[in-house]
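Dear support,

I submitted the protein below through the web form. The confirmation email said the job was done, but the results page showed an empty box. After a refresh the structure appeared. I'm attaching both so you can tell me whether what I see now is the final result or a partial one.
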Amino acid sequence: MAALSPPRPPPPPPSSLISPLLFFARISGLGVAFLVVSWALNFKSSFLPQSTSQEDLIYAVLHPLLMVIGFILISGEAILVHKWLPGSRSLKKSVHLSLQGVALASGVFGIWTKFHGNDGVLANFYSLHSWMGLICIALFGAQWLIGFMSFWHRGEIRSTRMKVLPWHIFFGLYTYGLAVATAETGLLEKLTFLQTMRNVSRRSPESMVVNGLGLGLAFLSGIVILAAVSPMYDNLQRKLVYSSDQIKNLMS
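What the results page shows now:
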């Protein structure tokens, strides 16, 4: 007869690693938001040096704001929802899906701003930055659609959903990393243009802001990805307890 397993202890608090990561993610996110807003508002003439149209200037300034704050920062926050939001799994998934929907809408509108102009639809889509941006939005949209269908169709076989989940996580983190890499290529492209065509000094305030923004995005993405892949201590502890109980029952 199998021996009765001892009562399981109450689940311990979340891993001590998660809370500092969430704190630094929020701080670095605020820093990135501050830098991109400062760049867009304080150096507006750099975005459209050859145009005097106020409408063109608004669209040009909206592009970095939407792609960095609306797309990268909000999608990063959506990735971290499962690590900090209390409540049921269904609540976490619904908030995650909603935030990713906002990020997708911001990304689509941010790319649409580059279609606006008198040079034609494809005038701004010739560089590595633009190609990566289109691929990133396409992958993000497909990822969100799969998540939406999975959320509203919960009758699938559990084994099938468990097989799809690792791929969903992988492509989610890959797309987020691709979005940051795309932003970095855009910053490099813009700064190179300013320094060669506009004779902006390498040590000018604008160069420092753009370089700081690039470093901030790199730092933020590392924290978000690390927090996303770090296991919660309570879930890990429960798995260890369950495995220990199963071994004791088999040996009894």
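Response: this is the final, complete result; the empty box was a page-load delay. The longest helix spans residues 158-197.
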